[in-house]
């Protein structure tokens, strides 16, 4: 299975909104508007990576470099679930962070109700380091050092 990460472009933002609003995704992310995605893609504060599987846009990742060696893994959305694309994308993202951002640690937060995500993060070596609440929903904070 070949998955390619590419720097996102504004023309992909509409597809990102549609992916976030799909019935099997919207419960796990707080969707962004088209305008917010577009402005963030152009921003220097975050890194958008588009996931291409068989030359088709299949998802995206949002990262934010917090310090020289720490990256916040803000979001992953995969259009087609259950095929292993998310796990492969996370591995590719980690390699991207190590090689292009010289980072040695990635952290994320995930809603406690996202059992699929938590399972995958643990399987890939992420460990929980704290909990918090956002609008009444429990968030788990996880990290991985490499």
From TrEMBL:
Which Gene3D superfamilies does the protein's record reference?
A: 3.40.630.30
Q: Where is the N-acetyltransferase domain?
A: 3-146
Give the Gene Ontology MF terms in alphabetical order. Answer: acyltransferase activity, transferring groups other than amino-acyl groups
The record's listing under InterPro entries reads: Acyl_CoA_acyltransferase, GNAT_dom
Q: Give coiled-coil spans as residue ranges.
A: none
Q: Cross-referenced Pfam families, in alphabetical order?
A: Acetyltransf_1
| UniProt cross-references to SUPFAM superfamilies, sorted A to Z | Acyl-CoA N-acyltransferases (Nat) (SSF55729)
Q: What is this protein called?
A: GNAT family N-acetyltransferase
